[in-house]
């Protein structure tokens, strides 16, 4: 059989019989949207010669009957069933691909509309089957490559749709989820079942609100709960103090001299301590020693937790001290918040996730998933629609040669991650710096500003550029461009400016007098500035996904203008023939897919 095309009912049974009965295959690798594991158990009983069935599917879409869970676990322990899964909130698997093997060699392949479920036999399905080796190999060859490109790792642990954490005492009371968006309710119910959690959802989706309700939930369980909130910037300290004040919760900032801590200890019931990461890791032994006298429950909240990667050893020591045997804390909880926990240094990401109990303790929603599903479940959306405008820059032949040379070093260093530790992704950072620093891309952005100056005179714009020098250059260019409104103003907002200048710039911007801020990194997190009209992205070397933080300034839903759009203008780097570079592809494809 070269190729066979079939349509109709009962096609999945036909394929399984063909693979296991006719071709005597002893292994199946299946990619499917849905997986019913009762069917897998039946196959092992019906065809005893089967050695292994490997699944790749969505975490939420595995099913098994209660009475067969024990048998399933035995098959998993013996590695006869291997489950790989990705949360639909990160990347939804919709393909249905089947590849059969006998004695390690491919025997049969199929691409079909049929899920791995008995129900598929009742549906009118289509199926394309072949024994050709090149066809079978091609069916699975791109999966690993795409997952690596999108920086998504398949999970090996049992999906929670199969093995639920049973702890009825910790089910969250409905009053703590009233008035929340649907995704916030789901996350709170998820948090109530664990003591460590990473909430990794898009900006503008209410991470702080989730944390506040979680604090209130734990206060209700035990009034003698102490909460420590750790943040990377003074601005976030002030934001948290205001949020907590609005909720009637007393909060105390701890500075380097331990001021205000006495007020906290006068009556620590239902109180919150807020401090910077940098301060906390120097002072926490003293703080914990004082807190421990009250023998409270302890909740540690790490806001913008991706900023912790430079202090992972300190964080590990802190966790170890809190969780050691004989600790005075009755219960310890850890909540980490971020719109993106990604980094060029993947080892840091892996260590952080492992420290918090692994992937099963991470609630992650990608931007495409949020727009396609969660954003539509509320009476009013959480996020605005996006209007995406890519600006393409084609690398010259010499620039492309340099890019390929740097990419080769990225590949070499990524193979040596365990030997080189945190320095293993220096090449990835150098490559990003090189691409973002190409002079031709600056010209593309300036040209766009010249031809769209009227748009920059209206509403609020934030432009993210990779260096302070180009920020200053672009500001000068912007205000001297023909058509620029002299009543408007532009500020360079980054770490090289004085605090007084930054405060003035931000006040002008909030009052709608300053219409354009140009920043390296500072405005990409921790600033809930209202009513942003557009964001210009010129990338950075901080993370492959820090653009998620940056567009967050614009995509928050504006209840005063429900029809407003978030305009995202994006410098996209391409090879000399115009094909988007691999390091740009995920951002480009994601923004294009959710654009109006």
General description of the model:
This protein folds into 3 domains: 147 residues, Endonuclease Chain A (Endonuclease, Chain A), CATH 3.30.870; 202 residues, 3-Layer(aba) Sandwich (Rossmann fold), CATH 3.40.50; 209 residues, Rossmann fold, CATH 3.40.50. Helix 5 crosses helix 6 and helix 13 packs antiparallel against helix 15. Helix 19 links the parallel strand 19 and strand 20. It is α/β, with parallel strands linked by helices and 596 residues long. A 7-stranded mixed β-sheet has the order 1-9-8-7-2-4-6, with helices on both faces. Strands 12-13-11-14-15-10-16 form a 7-stranded parallel β-sheet. Helices cover 39% and strands 20% of the residues. One of its GO terms (molecular function) is catalytic activity, acting on DNA.
């Amino acid at each position: 059989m070269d190729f066979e095309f079939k349509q109709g009912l009962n096609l999945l049974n036909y394929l399984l019989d063909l693979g296991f009965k006719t071709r005597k295959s002893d292994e199946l690798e299946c990619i499917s949207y849905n997986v019913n594991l009762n069917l897998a158990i039946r196959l092992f009983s019906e065809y005893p010669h089967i050695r292994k069935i490997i699944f790749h599917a969505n975490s939420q879409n595995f099913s098994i009957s209660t009475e067969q869970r024990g048998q399933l676990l035995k098959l998993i322990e013996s590695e006869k069933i291997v489950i790989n899964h990705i949360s639909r909130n990160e990347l939804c698997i919709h393909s249905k691909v089947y590849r059969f093997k006998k004695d390690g060699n491919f025997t049969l392949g199929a691409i079909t509309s049929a899920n791995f479920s008995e129900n598929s036999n009742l549906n009118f399905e289509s199926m394309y089957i072949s024994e050709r080796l090149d066809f079978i190999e091609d069916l699975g060859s791109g999966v690993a490559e795409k997952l690596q490109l999108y920086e998504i790792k398949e999970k090996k642990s049992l999906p929670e749709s199969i093995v639920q954490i049973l702890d009825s005492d910790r089910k969250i009371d409905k009053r703590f989820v009233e008035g929340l968006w649907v995704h916030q309710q789901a996350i709170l119910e998820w948090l109530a079942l664990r003591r460590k959690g990473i909430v990794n959802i898009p900006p503008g989706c209410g991470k702080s609100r989730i944390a506040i309700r979680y604090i209130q939930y734990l206060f209700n369980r035990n009034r003698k709960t102490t909460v420590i909130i750790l943040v990377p910037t003074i601005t976030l300290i002030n934001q948290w103090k205001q949020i907590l004040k609005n909720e009637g919760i007393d909060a105390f900032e701890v500075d380097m001299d331990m001021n205000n801590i006495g007020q906290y200890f006068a009556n620590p019931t239902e109180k919150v301590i807020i401090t910077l990461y940098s301060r906390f890791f120097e002072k926490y032994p003293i703080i914990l020693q004082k807190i421990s006298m009250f023998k409270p429950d302890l909740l540690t909240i790490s806001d913008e937790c991706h900023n912790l990667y430079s202090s992972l050893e300190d964080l590990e020591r802190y966790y170890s001290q809190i969780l050691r045997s004989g600790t005075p804390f009755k219960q310890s909880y850890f909540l980490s918040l971020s719109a993106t926990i990604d980094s060029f240094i993947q080892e840091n990401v892996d260590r952080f996730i492992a420290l918090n109990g692994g992937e099963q303790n991470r609630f992650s929603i990608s931007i495409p998933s949020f727009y396609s599903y969660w954003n539509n479940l509320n009476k009013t959306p959480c996020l605005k629609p996006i209007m995406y405008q890519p600006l393409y820059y084609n690398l010259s032949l010499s620039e492309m040669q340099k890019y390929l040379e740097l990419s080769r070093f990225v590949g070499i260093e990524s193979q040596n991650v365990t030997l080189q530790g945190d320095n293993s992704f220096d090449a990835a950072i150098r490559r990003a710096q090189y691409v973002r620093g190409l002079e031709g891309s600056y010209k593309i952005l300036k040209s766009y500003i010249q031809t769209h100056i009227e748009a920059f005179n209206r509403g609020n714009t934030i432009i993210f550029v990779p260096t302070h020098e180009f920020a200053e250059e672009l500001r000068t260019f912007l205000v001297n461009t023909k058509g620029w409104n002299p009543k408007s103003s532009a500020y360079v907002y980054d770490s090289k400016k004085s605090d007084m200048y930054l405060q003035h710039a931000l006040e002008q911007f909030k009052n709608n007098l300053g219409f354009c801020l140009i920043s390296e990194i500072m405005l990409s997190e921790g600033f809930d500035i209202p009513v942003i009209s557009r964001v210009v992205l010129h990338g950075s070397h901080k993370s492959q996904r820090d653009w998620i933080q940056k567009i967050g300034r614009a995509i928050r839903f504006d209840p005063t203008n429900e029809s407003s759009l978030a305009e995202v203008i994006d410098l996209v780097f391409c090879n000399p023939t115009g094909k988007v570079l691999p390091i740009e592809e995920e951002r480009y494809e994601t923004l294009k897919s959710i654009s109006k």
